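Following up on my earlier thread - several people asked me to post the actual chain instead of describing it. Fair enough. Here it is, all 270 residues.
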Amino acid sequence: MKALKFVVLLAGVLTFINGGMVRAELTPIEIWNNFNSLGTHGWSFNSTTTLSNPERYFAPSNAAFVPDLSAYHANARGSAPNSFLSFCIEPNVGSVRVAGTAKLNFSGGNSTRVSSDDKAISVGTAFLYQQFATGAFGTSLYNYTNSTQRSSDYSSLLGVLRSLMVPNGTLNWSNKFLGYLLTINSDQNYWTAIYDPGQRYNEIGDYAVFVMNISNSNGTGEYQDFLYIAKADYGHSNGEVPEPAMILLWTLGSIGTLGVRQYRKRVRQS
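Reply from S.P.:
Thanks for posting it. Predicted structure:
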């Protein structure tokens, strides 16, 4: 009986814990809704660049409005608290705003920048930003610590991110970042296809990448477009995390097995 009670207790604990794990992240739609509700006109931020970090970083201008930054590696964080690094995927924008509001763009199965062409993120754009933001790049691709190399890598990656927007610009597949894509999937058309944040891609994993449309503090006058990433719940269709119901079934099976053993033991003793 002690063994049976232990299994029942353990099953309850595992089911409770696992139930929380399954909903630890938000769905892409929930990420989009939550981010855009951070303030009257979306998320309020201050942004800047530093000599050591050529990427622009964004930090909350109001401590009450902080986006989810759990997807960002330490190398992809800014020097300010609760800040993250990003790339301006809008070319020819002139001066970049240092303060304003931001909203995520997610409509019709893609995420686009606000401009005359409304270009959308491609799978390649999303994957490369996911690699940068999560710190997955090796130093030969993106050197986060050497300021000179970082500046060079930044310029190269920025050009690729913009060129991969759909419809695509000129693509030189001998570029080290584009070549990196081909080592993972040799089909160029795969990387240049429109990326849907609501769909899970094996190469990107449980992350959703969005275009972050930048406006002024009054929420008017779109100026630039940057990238943003968040951990996402895609229903765990890849089977990495079992559902609570499955845990419960396993538990009931174990309890049944123990119960039969206890019954047989009693029969033999009698």
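The beta strands are 43-48, 56-60, 84-86, 99-105, 207-215, 224-231. That should answer part of your original question.
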